[in-house]
Prior knowledge:
Radius of gyration: 25 Å
Number of helices: 18
Number of strands: 14
Strand content: 5-15%
Bound molecules: beta-D-galactopyranose
CATH topology of the largest domain: D-Maltodextrin-Binding Protein, domain 2
Shape: globular
Amino acid sequence: MKRFAAMVCSHSPQRLGAPIRLVSLIGLFALLGAPVALTAAGKPEPRDPRLEIFSWWTAGGEAEGLAAMFEIYRAKYPTAQIINATVAGGAGSNAKAVLDTRMQSGNPPDSFQVHAGHELIDSWVRAGKMEPITFVFRENGWLNAFPKDLIDIISYKGEIYSVPVNIHRSNVLWYNKKIFADNGLVPPASFDQLVKVCDALATKGITPFALGDNGIWASVHLLESVLLSTMGPVRYKGLWTGATPWDGGELRTSLSRFATLLHYVNTDHATQSWDAAAQYVIDGKCAMTVMGDWVEGYFKAKGLTPNGEFGWVPFPGTKGSFMMLSDSFGLPRGAPDRDAAVKWLTVAASREGQDAFNPKKGSIPSRTDCNRSLYDAYLQSAMDSFRTDTIVPSVTHGAAAAEGWVSQIQDVIALFLCDLDVEKASAGLIAAAREYVR
Ligand code: GAL
């Protein structure tokens, strides 16, 4: 800026007419690489709002949901330029590293996708990287529009730090209805029934389970459902608070059951993504998949209908429990266009925003006052379960534990996939818990 001032002063104002002077200044700015437009009064033009939203929503369903929220934003703020900064890779398996680098180097996006709970609070809020946004809720009269328990897990020291845009359920088994009907199978309700179904399918030469655990998280996702099924909601929940000891026999039983299921998955699981696994179910290459209900968004984006081509049940043995996670958006300190970001958070928290996003995303709104009639049969069933079931936090998706703990669990499970050594994996998980349970 100083360099620029010196160059301007070298021109004699008497010799330059005002229009010429303006053109020269703009030329100089251009030369200096500073694309600043000036008003007739010589002041910098106010820049059009520029909103950069960072997420990992690139697959069918989730990309459409995000686009629907962008549409609402654009309709409200037509001059805003939206930068859709996505990094592909389910569960943020690639995005989180990119975000980390950006945040550490002082280059935050205006807002970013982050899971409600430990991921938000432990990774970003405690580190002082986020601004409180209680004012968004207060100014819009929305403090009571969200479940209190959800507000609690996005709050720290009395302030709210993100806008939860949805509620997802992780403990769902999705199945290809035609394969089940053709083979006279009914969806399993217990672990033993699940194994029987898998055997029946395998005998017919059909791969029972589709798994896409490129990036490992989808395996941990499967394990969390097995843990819930084996332990029940109270003891599962206690794993993350210290109330349930990790060295009880249930962990070993869960790992053995998990190993049993791994015998029935597609052999190329390590190179596939969650959506490729979902596609295997659509194509009839596999009969079932265990995944969060973003799969429902994917199925619908591919033209399928709930209860038409695909069906669902809670992961066998977990009926009555809703393993939850929530995607949210926050306000990083130093957001380049803070005003545009606050407007984004307001759209994401609004009923209109949530009712546009969630039916496509395959999630239910986090607000309690949304329009139920916009949601399909699966999503209405999820809304009912969310109201009546015991809610437990997903570990894979940031609700139950700090990211450091989750990544240690992922490391243990990555080895387990190779050696299926229950004792070794138990020891690894127990050691990780010792480090994190307070
Ligand atoms: C989860 C996220 C979902 C969905 C999924 C697959 O972690 O909460 O919204 O994006 O990953 O990428």
